[in-house]
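Final report, Chapter 2: Outcomes

The project's central promise was a pipeline that accepts a single protein chain and returns its three-dimensional structure in a standardized token representation, suitable for archiving and comparison. That pipeline is now operational. To close this chapter, we reproduce one record exactly as it appears in the project archive, with the input sequence first and the structure output second.
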Amino acid sequence: MARHSRLDTSIRHGAGLKQISDLNDAWISTHDREVRLMVPAFDIANPEFSIVIPALNEKLTIGPFVDWCHEGLRRAGVRGEILIVDSSTDDTAQIAISKGARVLKTPRRGLGRAYIDALPFIRGKYVLMGDADCTYDFRDIEPFIEGFQNGHEFVMGSRFSGSIEAGSMPPHHRYFGTPLTTWVLNFLYASAFSDIHCGMRGITRAALQNMSLQSQSWEYASEMVLKSVRMNLRTTEVPVHFLKDREGRLSHHKRSGWLSPWAVGWTSLKTMFIYGTDYFLVRPGLLLLLAGLLLTLPLAPGPMTIGTWTLSLNWMLLGLTLSVLGLHGFFLGSLARIFFDYSGDATRRLLTLFSYTRSVAVSAAAGACGAVLTIPLVRECLHSRNALPIENFSSTHLAVAGLLFLVAGLMNFTFTLAIHAAAVFVKRK
């Protein structure tokens, strides 16, 4: 390996920061002592474009793949580097180095983690991601370059708008899993992707850094797409060509067993739900709250007859339940929105709407109103010594409305405290 590499830099046992002079002011945290960068003898300086690829035991394909990358960079006429994030136990790293790629040696800990590890070592302004198995044709990267040159920050590849070679994608992936999860994401987030699981995608380094990926494994792909929507990144799709595995190579899904694709699909859905918490809670919560109020408040004076329907205490208790559930969903969803607010606009709106002094005053007023409405029922109960069922008291309906005000006031107060604390935490972080 020594004859192929002019620099082999390791992070070991308290090594200092910023050890590599050509990392464009990147820094390496000393807590990760297992990451090691190897640079080929003929390395390119000041690249504008970075092809960053995780690899795990890809000695069969890594050589042709790096050749494809060099050819793609030449065709596109850009100055670029190839960075292989390698956690192999075979000769993948040595072959990549010999072909002129940088290699970042990392422990085996997942695709998402590979990109997290690689971020401090990426030198280009634009980043192209993909797989090292020659299933994506990196000889044709010009559409991604053009997307960046046209001002886009996230350039998503699409196999469905490009081409899918026969035998490259299992039928349940092509016709069920990928279309279904793509539809779910588009429905939830009002986006327009056609292939959210396409592994070939480009993003500016600044956006990738601001995105702060957390996923350690396959779910990074869904997290990236979701965060691109939340960050309002300027996004476009470009067609890509998807090729079948080379003879003699088994895909990682096949190596992991028949359950692997289903586990990936389930994990992708989980990621959508987690990063879309506010979508599931805020608007549905407001709808439940509205329905609950329409059932509760009109019945506060007493039972109401509409046609053949008589709405009484049971309906009012249903309204109370819906109102509490709606408030709960709205408050939790709004709190989640702060943690996913990259621009800060949603946080400012919420802090204005729930300004501390005004919100505490509203909570106190709601609590006082609730207490006033429930006191008559308490008196009647004490006077009758519970001789009558509670629904026979004249003040029961008012007391249920009062209970709603009491609960709403307490929930509003606790939410006000939580949202201001969350805003301070996120700002400091």
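Archive annotation: Residues 2-275 form a domain with the Spore Coat Polysaccharide Biosynthesis Protein SpsA; Chain A fold (CATH 3.90.550.10).
This record, like all others produced under the grant, will remain available to the consortium after the project formally closes.
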